[in-house]
Amino acid sequence: MSEHGGTRDDASNFYVDRRDFLKYSLATSVAVWAGTAVPGGIGIEAAEAEELFAVKRLNPRRFPQSVASGDPRPNGIVLWTRIAAPKQRSVKVAYEIARESDTKFKRPLVRGVARTDRSRDYTVKVQVQRRDLKPFRKYRYRFIYNGEKSRTGHFKTLPAPGADISKLRFGFVSCQDYTNGYYNAYYHLAREGELDFIVHLGDYMYETVSSDSFQGGGPPPRQFRFPDGGEECLTLKDYRFAYKKYRTDRNLQMVHEKCAMIQVWDDHEFANDAYQIYAPDEGGTQATPNRNPRRREAATRAWAEFNAVGVSYNAAKGPLDEIVIYRSFDFGNLMQLVMTDQRLYRDGPPAGNETQDRYLTPGTGAEEAPGRTMLGDGTRTAPDGLPRPAQLGYFLNKMTNSTKRWKVWGNEVTFMQNKVANTYLGAGNLFPTLDPAAAPEGVYITLDQWDGYQAERRRITQEIRDKNVRNFVTITGDIHSYIAGYIKENYDDPTSTGANRPVGVELICGSITSSNLTEIGSMGFGAAPAPDANQFTAAVTASNPHIKYFNSNDHGYNLMEVTKDSILCTMTRVVPITPDNENRGSGIKESDPKNTRREVLRKFRVRDGQVLIYDETNGVPVPLTP
Q: Using one digit for the tens of pLDDT, what is the confidence trace for 157-174?
């Protein structure tokens, strides 16, 4: 976005016209220019600029959520901060960008001024697009208000289109329930050395604080209540409060300050197992679900305000088209990253809208029905008839026509099938309360994932196979477990040859803090006793031969090193150095991050041109055949 009005680039969805930009940026006035000299005609005089950019001291308390950057482009970035509520209704906030080597901001490359006010909770979000920012370079930035500067943030721009790139290094994360533990994983991620960016796959915040199915065992200092809804976000005030609370965590702040983040939402930014404008846990029936468009709009607005995402938001539109968050990022000729929205347009669950039988269920057959969509196929939603875009076509076009070496999908929920075989059901087995006679083909872990949308999953897999898409890799969050496995058409067929050969691999990260199976089992959450974690792990891998690694015992993040020859995924957990009664041996229950360490769980490599996972944890490549 230039100061002259900008243009539209449908390939990147990054440039927007002036009117949409002001809606997107949530600022009533934005000015940006190069260097220190103030150009004429932008409404800011030199004397005013001198006052706006005068720095008297560092004051992190003036910027209680620190700073963040996101959605990098070859010549652009999105910058974000929030000002501690001043007395004025409307304020001007200055920002500046300098070369990474310019530690004192003596010769800033770009300067700008944005206005914010109470109507946007004093958040500041600006989209900078300037030729002064060069491709694949590191920069530093800061905000200034009333003589007080923020902490310094850092970002790296994308490579130029088609540039020959030899290496990328990034992290990917998901699921950070503030109330369930400390963000010690972020403490270590912030110290991981050079990272080009970080991908966040959703569940940045949680709309509840005491759900009996997965919350309640976290440290007392991490507990809080929402101002309007108490234990659950219901209003715009509640959702804003949640982001403000989460973003006060210093370890999370350090990750945002370290590098740019590319993110999408999942369900908990709105409601558990959410779809369209529905929150299944609110009640209703499968035929008449409980609709709540106002709550959906509140959640969407807060997400747009509090995250450094380069997407437009227009509250004047309907709840399904006021924002579009699916988008793609090109890293020269090395990699394309496509981020999709798997909540706003999906059909409802195939069963269990009014009950919990969308979990550990044999299914009803509806999960296999043709026409069910998760990504959105351009049809109208049921039962409301709301319009939705053809995101499915957008995604397939990106994947099948990409000329990049690696095609990476930022996917919110598990794509591979995940079932437990019938032999693990019944008395004396893993799930003693489930009748094996009622589930001859076993039970799905959850139909909230792609298992509930099998026809569309099959179509995606067939397109990837039939159009011979090479180097297809899916990175996934949501399930609070580390998983590695193969993507193929028919998961019930154990063979992996011919038409059923694998077309790609899926790599899933554990949660930052959100409850995994071990915690749920040890703390007794939920209506039924949870299974033993070790037994469950054995059952999952035995029942799903396409899954080569499963771990729902730990918390942490994944690191990705991408080269022309391969992708290396390092699955990392965080554990206490000194286990004691307070931390109970858990890395997320330890209040002092310095009393934790990072450990490598697994190293998985995928080589160029091969759909084959190599386990390199012990330094010796071991092929994990599909």
A: 999 999 999 999 999 999
